[in-house]
């Protein structure tokens, strides 16, 4: 699923899926959607994530912020340790 160079329809569906995941309460394995986000990284996806990161929903703010941070740092692996470290770090 998380492969680069998807056709437009599949890319749109993956972008929408990532948006849905960051909007809901965290569920086990939600961090796995970072792979999909990295595969379909685009201005559209980042715009949706930035909106979620500014929303009134604390789950969406946290999760979207994490995904955006990982998109900005592709060299960083998406591990449980990184997630916990990111959560504990002070935010701007």
List the helices and strands and how they pair.
Elements: H1 8-23, H2 33-39, H3 43-53, H4 58-72, H5 80-88
Given the C-alpha coordinates, what overall shape results? globular
Order of helices and strands: HHHHH
Share of residues in helices? 55-70%
Which parts are unreliable, with pLDDT below 50 for 5 consecutive residues or more?
none
Q: How many strand segments? A: 0
Average of the residue pLDDT scores: 87
Number of continuous helical runs = 5
Largest sheet: none
Q: Report the C-alpha radius of gyration, rounded.
A: 12 Å
Termini separation comes to: 33 Å
Q: Provide the structure class.
A: mainly alpha
Into which percentage range does the β-strand content fall?
under 5%
Give an overview of the whole structure.
The protein is mostly helical. Helices cover 63% and strands 0% of the residues. Helix 1 crosses helix 2 and helix 3 runs antiparallel to helix 4. The radius of gyration is 12 Å and the shape is globular.
């Amino acid at each position: 699923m998380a492969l680069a160079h998807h056709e437009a329809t599949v890319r749109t569906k993956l972008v929408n899926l990532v948006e849905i995941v960051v909007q809901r309460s965290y569920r086990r394995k939600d961090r796995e959607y970072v792979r999909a986000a990295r595969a379909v990284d685009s201005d559209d996806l980042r715009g949706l994530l930035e909106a979620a990161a500014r929303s009134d929903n604390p789950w969406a703010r946290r999760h979207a912020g994490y995904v955006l941070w990982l998109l900005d740092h592709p060299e960083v692996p998406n591990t449980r340790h990184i997630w916990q470290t990111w959560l504990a770090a002070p935010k701007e």
